[in-house]
Amino acid sequence: MDQNLEMNKKKFFSKILLFGEYGIIKNSKALVIPYKKFYGSLKFSSKLDNVQKDSNINLKQLSKYIKNKEFVSNKINTLKLDSDIENGLYFESTIPESYGLGSSGSVVAAIYESYKKEVFVDLEISDLKLIFSLMESFFHGQSSGIDPLSCYVQKPLLVESKNSINTIDIPPQNINSKRTLFIIDTECKGNTQGLVEIFLNKLRQKDFEVFFENEFVVATNNSITNFLERKYEDFESNFIELSKKTFNNFQEMIPINYKNLWMDGIEKKDYYLKLCGSGGGGFLIGLATDLDKVQKLFPDKKIEALYRF
Fold it and tell me: pTM to 2 decimals?
């Protein structure tokens, strides 16, 4: 009889990069929040099905990778990890892949939580970020460590610079307000690595670099500050600027079937859209003064309220 046992009842939730897309590469601020609709957990099975078997093999490769990273390997009980992998350990996840929601970050967070050595229980956030960046580089070749850090602490993170990251409390919602930050599921996958390469190539153009640092990053930083300080009129103004600047300068990152919808929002002023992470697919983030109206405009779209204020 197959025994499918949860190894750790703790769920590692997905995350949303609310602000900081691309800007974080140039040391702008970023705001990351947990998104508890999706999650993953480590489990055991004595009889792995095909999906579980793929996950088990992936964990085995991750463990091998960790053992070649001395800074990480001496903090994780790799003997126990390898033993559990041989005994049917796998990662069960509802987090969509290539959506920028932290599907690989949640794996990293779960492995670290379950196999960290006791002496390394109370590390500073900066140390955790470095550990997680090294671990997650297994999946992406390069990682900031922000995704697994968010999945691990399961609290909002304010990134003020590469060397300054703190957990914070975001303002409470006004659940009766029609003014809403929302998300749209584009129902297609993104390609983070390819889009980041496009962005880095664009940065080599002097005009774009000046625009990005003097306009886009400033609007991003102001949006985060306004939001956290509850200066919502200023927040809306900066969000609108981000929407316009993205449309005019990041066409490659906007899913083709959402370009007209994006522009309609700007022109009709019913809603405004911005990227959620690197773009190309996954979610888009929107701002509406009346979410009900937006949902009626697009009854066929998967729209979900994220934060009412």
Answer: 0.91
